[in-house]
Specification:
With 134 residues, the chain is mainly beta. The chain is 0% helix and 54% strand. It has no helices and ten strands. A hairpin with a 4-residue loop joins strand 7 and strand 8. The two termini are 34 Å apart.
Length: 134
């Protein structure tokens, strides 16, 4: 299980308010992520965002927003996840003695690359089927 830590250093008087936002197509809330801000002294602050047990849907843009009413700044991190795709949804709609009709839906997470084909194995025989984009 991987953990990712992102740090944002801010300085200001009055103390800046630091918030983190996450942007991704399937936008997930930051509720399961741990974040905390500590004082470094001399009006300097460190805000840390920690993502435990990183999952494919954690991929996206993380922004540290700093604002103390007198000024504001941002720091953006891009988190890339390198892993294979999720399993596709598969349904069987027709079965006869010599035919099976199978529908395969592209998985929500494709590993960042297009799905080109699927392999189907039955009775030790493998068939490759081209993926069709919709």
């Amino acid at each position: 299980d991987a953990t990712v830590t992102m740090t944002c250093i801010a300085s200001g008087n009055p103390q800046p308010n630091v918030t983190w936002t996450f942007t991704f197509v399937g936008q997930q809330p930051l509720e399961r992520l741990a974040q905390h801000t500590i004082s470094l002294g001399a009006h300097r602050y460190s805000s840390v965002l920690r993502v435990d047990n990183v999952l494919p849907h954690d991929e996206g843009m993380y922004r540290c927003n700093i604002d103390n009413g007198l000024g504001q700044a941002q720091v953006t991190y891009k988190l890339l996840i390198n892993c294979g795709p999720d399993y596709p949804d598969v349904s069987i709609s027709f079965v006869s003695n010599d035919t099976v009709t199978v529908f395969i839906s592209e998985p929500l997470y494709t590993g960042g690359l297009p799905i080109r084909n699927y392999s189907i194995t039955y009775n030790s025989r493998t068939v490759f089927v081209d993926a069709v984009s919709r």
